[in-house]
Specification:
Length: about 160
């Protein structure tokens, strides 16, 4: 039996899911903190619920899509899809832990929200840099990849600025 891998770097199968999860999580942190500034617990609930819904939606869509294409779903296939899409959720572990520290009062709510957003965006950029290194990307590929990650980061930060 294959064990569920909690951390994105442990899963070799869905780096795209981890990147997607980080962008999704950062966007939710930005948007939710506009309505609930300083309320890290509420922002954490938004992030966790959204991550879970998107995770299950991706699994469902892949299972149904495969079925429509002619392969009936089995319990093994559903488990495989659950494992395949898990990095979308697990990539958000650090930001969610930081939000939890805010919810518990270890950090102020605003500090926890800011640190969670910074952590998600830093993970995104570091993850893209690592991916470029791992595949021995050319200089042009690395610049394009990192620039795209930075554009996502800037858009998320602008969302936070303009929504507040």
């Amino acid at each position: 039996m294959t064990r569920l891998r909690l951390f994105p770097h442990e899963s070799k199968r869905n780096v795209a899911g981890a990147i997607y999860g980080l962008i999704l999580g950062a966007s939710i942190i930005s948007a939710a903190s506009a309505d609930h500034p300083g309320q890290a617990g509420l922002v954490e609930i938004y992030v966790c619920v959204t991550a879970l819904v998107f995770y299950l939606a991706h699994v469902y869509a892949r299972v149904i899509g495969t079925w429509i294409e002619g392969e009936a779903p089995t319990a093994a296939a559903i488990r495989r899809e659950l494992r395949q899409e898990w990095p979308m959720v697990s990539a958000q572990l650090l930001p969610v832990l930081l939000l939890l520290l805010g919810a518990l009062g270890t950090l102020s709510g605003r500090t926890a929200i800011t640190l969670a957003l910074v952590a998600a965006l830093a993970e995104l950029i570091v993850g893209v840099l690592y991916a470029c290194f791992k595949v021995r990307a050319s200089r042009g590929q690395a610049i394009a990849s990192v620039t795209t990650a930075l554009v996502f980061a800037v858009v998320v930060v602008l969302l936070k600025i303009f929504v507040h």
